[in-house]
Structures are given as structure tokens and as C-alpha cells.
Amino acid sequence: MPDFTTFSVLFFVRKTSADTSKFLIYARITVDGKRAEISLKRSIPVNKWDPKKGRGRGSGQDVRVLNQYLDQVYTRLLECHKQLCSENKKISALNIKARYLGNDKEHKSLLELLKYHDSHMKTILKKGTLKNYGTTEIYVKEFLVKEKNINDLHLNEVNYRFITDFENFLRTYSARISRKTCGNNGTMKHLERLKKMLNLAVKIGWMTKNPFDSFKFRFEKYERQYLSKRELEILEATTFTRSSLEKVKDIFVFSCYSGLSYVDIKELVPDQIVKGIDGINWIYTKRQKTNETVKVPLLPKAQEILSLYLKENDTPNSETLFPVFSNQKVNKYLKEIMEQLNIRKIITFHSARHTFATTITLSNGVPIETVSKLLGHTKLSTTQIYARVLETKVSSDMLLLKEKIEANEAKRSAASPNLPN
Fold first, then answer.
1. pLDDT reported for residue 102
2. Integer CA distances (angstroms), 238 to 122, 231, 302, 305, in order
3. What is the pLDDT averaged over residues 193-203?
4. Which residue, 33, 91, 382, 403, has fewest beta-carbon neighbours within 10 Å?
5. CATH level 3 topology of 110-214
6. At CB < 8 A and 24+ separation, what contacts does 118-122 make?
7. Where are the domains of the chain?
8. Contacts by 263-272, CB closer than 8 A, 24 or more apart
9. CA distance 353 to 372
10. Rounded distance, CA 334 to CA 331, Å?
11. SS (H, E, C) 378-420
12. Are 295 and 281 in contact (CB under 8 A)?
């Protein structure tokens, strides 16, 4: 590539045999005297074109819109020239045209990235995670059509403005009644997934920089719901006449006393129940989400529920232990259960893990490091999200502190009886 090239862009018109009252508009790219032309698929009345300025003449709305478009094309062509220079590619009129039209081999589109991500990550990411990425991709495609009036765009057009526009779209758009408008944290999760996909584009050389580098995620903290000791006791003591509610109750309580997630309980098989050196049953499994090995000694309540279903389950060891409904149906039944028990909390199946972490283990003095191991977390900071210092624990700790202070005061008074209080 030469050290210096001449480069210019000119807008010009040609007559059309179909309608002699209008001109068709073209862009001419010239590099070192060699030209390439692009049809802009726009037309203008003959008397409204200014050949000297290369723009529409007049102040009407149609002319202003056209001139804005021509300015955008001009800026885009300059950007294509700049990209080729930064990539140390050959600067020619044809190469700039190809880059503008997206026909050069190096220039990939956003939908190409989504397709590449799907094909290369399906063996790496878990099924549930892939499903979440699929939802994000649906929103991206709807955003392109509804807000941008396009079906696809080049990756180098994905900039900070694109991100903020997409964020606003997520916060306000609802395609149908069954899909709610995204809340703040839901919006941030979609943006997080888009950022990861763009990071992939950077790694494979389809982008030079991720526009999310200057974007700040804003997650709102919220109290995660769990059952208190009293609420859990009420749930355990209740027998439901509907078998579906009774089964969901059993599996939920089992999770409260084992800490296993919905998918891990759903796929639990008899072979994963192993007798430990302490003489009690342990669950040996791997978390579907993190692939971390989890070893959980069964507490009496969990063993009681397990024994009940082991008796009912006469199928081979390849079959799962518990008859688990879909996650949506389980949460629907849990809502019914909580309403019947007058527990005014939004409880989902995931709340059982929080109950295990908070009510069953941490509030009974189990160290957070042990709880982290039982939950199958890879980082202690993840467990700290579950950890709560309950009021009863604060009260008992402060009572111990009070007794310790009073004992120290008594020792000091006994050692120095003549000192004033």
C-alpha cells in the first residue's frame, strides 16, 4: 500500500428512461484517479438537484431528509476509508465500495455473529444458558426491524449509540401480552449477553473494539425471598389434597434441606445416592450450571422424602428419582401453595436454595465456606449473595457480646475495688 493516496467522494445524478422528470443519485469514490460508483437507490426531481454542491436544492422536508441521508453516506464512506487504513489494507475505490456494501470478506454483520455464536457455543454452554442467549437474539432482531427498519447491519456500525438505543428498546418494548416488558435487571442481563457475543467478535478478529468497554451496567439490588424457620415448618406440616401440589411441596422441601437446584433435582438418579463413611446417605452429583462436583450429606428431612420416592420408584437406575414438572409449572404450583398457607412472599423454586443457605445452614452456625461447598459455588462471593445475617443471629451475637463485656467489667471491679465506677 502506498504511503499516500488521493481520496474523494462525489454525489452525482443520471437520467432515467423510466421517468424523465427525476434523476437517480449515485456516489462516486475516487482513489488515485480510479473510480467506483454506488447506486444509492434514491431519486430527486430534476429541478431540485444542485450539481455544484452535490446535494438537493431547496428547504422542503423531502430535500432536507435526502441531504441528511447523503451526509450519512459521505460519513460512512470516510469511515470505510479510515478502517482500511487502520487495518493496513489496500486503499482502492473498489475496496472502499466493497467495505461500504459489506461485500469484503473481512466485513461481518451482526446476524452473522449471532449465527456463529449459536453454532460454536452449543457444545460449551448449558441448555438453559443457550435458551437465554436465544431470547436475547430475538430481542436484537426485533430491535433491528422495529427501531432501525433494517434486517441486519455491519458489526462496525454497532457503537455506543446502538447499545443505548437497544437498552431503551428493551425497557419499553413488549411484542405480545405473554412477554412482559423487561425490568432493569432483565435489561442488564440481555445487554451482558450481547457484550459477551461482541467480545467473541473481538477475539476472532471481526471487530477491533467492543463498544461496551465504555458502558456501565446498573443492576438493582433486591432482597432474595426465602422461607423462615416458622414458614418452613408450616409448609412441612401441611398435606395438600391435590397430588400435584403435594409432589411440588415434597421436592421443594427436599431442595430446602439439600440445597440442590431445580435442574439438579430433576436429573437426580438413584446411582447418585452413595453411603458415606459416616454411615448416612450422601448425594454425589455435578451442578448443571457450573459443572462443579457437589457432595451433600442428606439431612433427616431430605432422607425422609427421598425414602418415600425410592419406595415409589420401581424403575431402573437410569430413571430419575423425582417426578419433576416443568420449571414454569412448578413455580405456578408454588404460588398456589404460598397463597393457601397465607405466606405473603414471592417464592420460586430457586428460593429453596436461599432457604437452605440462610435458614438451614448459616443461621445454625455452619461456616460460609462449607455452605459454598454444599451449594457447588466456584466463588465464595457467590455464596455471600445468599448469606443473610438474621435478626435472631444478630440478637444472640449481641447478647454474647453483652455478657462478655459485663464479665470483663466484673473482673476489672474485682481486681480494683477502690476505683470509682
1. 74
2. 43, 11, 16, 14
3. 95
4. 33
5. DNA polymerase; domain 1 (1.10.150)
6. none
7. 7-101, 110-214, 229-388, 394-421
8. 263/128, 263/288, 263/289, 264/288, 264/294, 265/322, 265/324, 266/320, 266/322, 266/324, 267/320, 268/320, 268/321, 268/322, 269/317, 269/318, 269/319, 269/320, 269/321, 270/310, 270/313, 270/317, 270/321, 271/317
9. 11
10. 5
11. CCHHHHHHHCCCCHHHHHHHHHHHHHHHHHHHHHHHHHCCCCC
12. no
96 CB contacts (<8 Å, ≥6 apart)?
7, 29, 31, 36, 77, 80, 81, 84
CB 376 within 8 A of CB 265: no
218 burial type by CB count under 10 A (0-12 exposed, 13-18 middle, 19+ buried)? exposed
Q: What percent of the chain is predicted at pLDDT more than 90? A: 46
Q: Give CA–CA dist 258/175, Å, rounded.
A: 39
C-alpha cell at 44: 430527486
Of 387, 327, 373, 352, the closest CA to residue 259 belongs to 352
Grid look-up 433427616 returns 300
> What is d(CA 294, CA 296) in angstroms, rounded to the nearest whole number?
6
Residue 414 has pLDDT above 90, yes or no: no
Domains 110-214 and 229-388 share a fold: no
Least confident of 93-97, 308-312, 363-367: 308-312
304: exposed, middle or buried (C-beta count within 10 Å: 0-12, 13-18, 19+)? middle
Q: Quick count: other Cβ atoms within 10 Å of Cβ 89?
A: 15
Which residue is associated with the grid cell 405456578?
332
Q: Could you give the CA distance from residue 204 to residue 155 in angstroms, rounded to a whole number?
A: 13
Distances (CA, A) of 130 to 126, 215, 263, 301, 382: 6, 24, 15, 35, 21
**Residue 388, pLDDT above cutoff 80:** no
Residue 363 · residue 392 · CB < 8 Å: yes
Strand 7-15: give its sheet, edge to edge.
7-15, 22-31, 34-45
Identify the CATH number of the domain defined by range 229-388.
1.10.443.10
Alpha carbon separation from 300 to 116, 162, 340 (Å, rounded): 49, 55, 26
pLDDT beyond 60 at 391: no
What is the distance between the alpha carbons of residues 121 and 159, in angstroms, rounded to a whole number?
A: 24
Grid coordinates standing for 319? 430413571
Q: What is the mean pLDDT of residues 162-168?
A: 95
Looking at per-residue confidence, does 103 or 216 come out higher?
216
The model scores a pTM over 0.90: no
